[in-house]
Write a structure and sequence with these properties.
The protein has 16 helices and 16 strands. The protein has helices spanning 2-15, 23-51, 55-62, 64-73, 121-135, 208-219, 256-275, 277-280, 287-290, 307-310, 318-337, 359-362, 376-383, 420-429, 437-440, 444-449, and strands at 78-84, 89-95, 98-105, 108-114, 139-146, 149-155, 176-182, 187-191, 197-201, 225-231, 247-249, 298-304, 343-349, 367-370, 400-405, 409-414.
């Protein structure tokens, strides 16, 4: 653009020395030069305002000449032949991918590109690393939502780089756990409907318990949810949910036998629900067809540091080993059959590998969340097999995780941090909603026989 300006200045200087005849055309040229300089400056300013750190990349893509050169350098330009004229004589042509639109995003920009003939997603995926270097952004990821239309995500900055906090619980979206903010700037939720197992992995200190507390806390604002809370660390990390748990096992009460009894109570409830399903769940055998109900709430069974109870090596004596085997068997039964009974088991662990959590349990968990881990083996244990371009939880910041579910796909998110005391006081205020579903839900025939231990709801 500078040369237009220089050209304009030179033209103005010449005006002093040439015959008057040339004044008009030279003035016009100079004005056009000036207009072009102004236009280009405005375009650059608008790009910076709209696209921030991705501005330069967007300018390269939207300037016909720069894009032609860049695309050619990256091997994204095709040559072919096209019939031309009355005789239909073949003529060599160059096909340049067309940039249709650029859209600002929290990470920079999305560019929508119509591919040249013969290009497919693999063409663009193979070029993505070189595209990122050529456009001067950290990374480019490519998708093809419409055939032969490629969306290039220009990742100039990481929108999840900075911690986020919230002064209050972010309300859940019905029976969904709030994951956090995603790279596209939306709050993402993970629906519990039609699921019975969530595996939550992450290195110690990666933010598992903090996430769990606020996500489960959000669901517990609904009276249609009840919680059995078990802390394998037997500490105080989960105290903020205590008032909204119908049973909270920690400290001395977190011993394997007490845990087994509590899980067995849920297993009995599950069996009663399965037997009475059609009568209890509005004429359908599946709990989720009609959805949660105060009389038949979703039962969340949260086991933090679950390897304490599920890792066969944590039992030393014969009795302890037998107890662990029993807990494994009941947990497996809950995850296998709990879906149609509104039971959801959350297994949180710093070690998701098969030595700590039996694969039979792990593989049944349809919902997965993984915070920072160190190895690929740990990622696979936590999230299962993922495509090579999926976001990875390796080396993420505390509070940044990757979630996988059939509904959300694979997403990276940052959990909002909510102070322990805030969750605690919100749960305390909701304490009146707490009731033990294993005691109050009985079928008519059970009531007739008087086998219930508590008061029906
Ligand atoms: N998103 C976050 N932002 C800021 N601090 C956090 C966040 N998540 C966790 N923490 C803090 O980091 C520490 C460890 O988090 P925690 O959830 O207990 O980790 P984990 O359960 O994975 O061992 C706690 O002191 C917690 O308050
Ligand atoms: Mg923890």
């Amino acid at each position: 653009m500078l040369r237009y300006f220089v050209f304009g200045i030179v033209a103005l200087l010449i005006l002093w020395r040439v015959p008057q005849l040339l004044i008009l055309p030279l003035t016009i040229v100079a004005l056009i030069g000036l207009a072009l300089v102004i236009r280009s400056a405005l375009r650059a300013r608008r790009a910076v305002t709209d696209f921030g750190p991705a501005a330069q990349a967007v300018m390269t893509l939207t300037s016909a000449r720069s894009w032609r050169v860049t695309a050619a350098n990256l091997g994204l330009v095709n040559t072919g032949q096209r019939a031309r004229g009355l005789m239909g004589r073949p003529e060599a042509v160059t096909f340049i991918p067309r940039v249709l639109r650029t859209i600002p995003t929290p990470y920079g920009a999305d560019a929508i590109v119509a591919g040249a003939p013969g290009q497919d997603l693999s063409t663009w995926a193979a070029a993505s690393g070189r595209l990122a270097s050529a456009l001067g952004v950290a990374a480019v990821t490519v998708t093809e939502p419409v055939p032969n239309q490629f969306v290039l995500a220009l990742r100039a900055s990481d929108p999840l780089a900075a911690p986020i906090s919230s002064p209050a619980l972010v309300p859940a979206n019905g029976m969904s756990l709030l994951l956090g903010l995603t790279e596209s700037g939306h709050w993402a939720h993970m629906s519990l409907a039609n699921h019975s197992g969530l595996l939550l992995c992450g290195a110690p200190g990666s933010g598992k318990t903090a996430w769990l507390t606020q996500a489960v806390g959000g669901v517990l604002t609904y009276p249609e949810a009840q919680l059995l809370l078990i802390d394998g660390k037997a500490g105080h990390d989960l105290d903020s949910l205590a008032q909204r748990s119908y049973l909270y096992l920690t400290g001395d009460q977190a011993d394997p036998l007490t845990v087994l009894m509590a899980l067995r109570d849920v297993q009995s409830l599950m069996r009663r629900r399965l037997v009475n399903a059609v009568e209890w769940f509005g004429g359908t055998p599946n709990y989720w067809s009609r959805g949660p109900h105060v009389g038949h709430p979703v039962v969340l069974v949260v086991i933090d540091e679950a390897q304490t109870y599920l890792d066969a090596r944590s039992g030393i004596t014969k009795d302890e080993k037998a107890l662990i085997a029993e807990i494994q068997s009941v947990a497996m039964d809950l995850i296998k059959k709990g879906r149609s009974a509104g039971i959801v088991v959350v297994i949180a662990t710093q070690k998701g590998t098969t030595d700590a959590i039996p694969s039979a349990i792990r593989d049944q968990c349809g919902l997965r969340v993984c915070f920072r881990v160190q190895t690929r083996e740990a990622v696979e244990a936590g999230l299962g097999q993922l495509p090579p371009d999926a976001p990875s939880p390796i080396g993420q910041d505390r509070g940044v995780g990757v979630a996988v579910s059939p509904e959300v796909g694979v997403i990276r998110f940052r959990s909002p941090y909510i102070a322990h005391e805030v969750v605690e006081s919100e749960m305390a205020a909701l304490g009146r909603l707490t009731s033990d579903p294993t005691r109050v839900e009985v079928s008519n025939s059970d009531m007739a026989q008087g086998i219930t231990e508590g008061d029906p709801a």
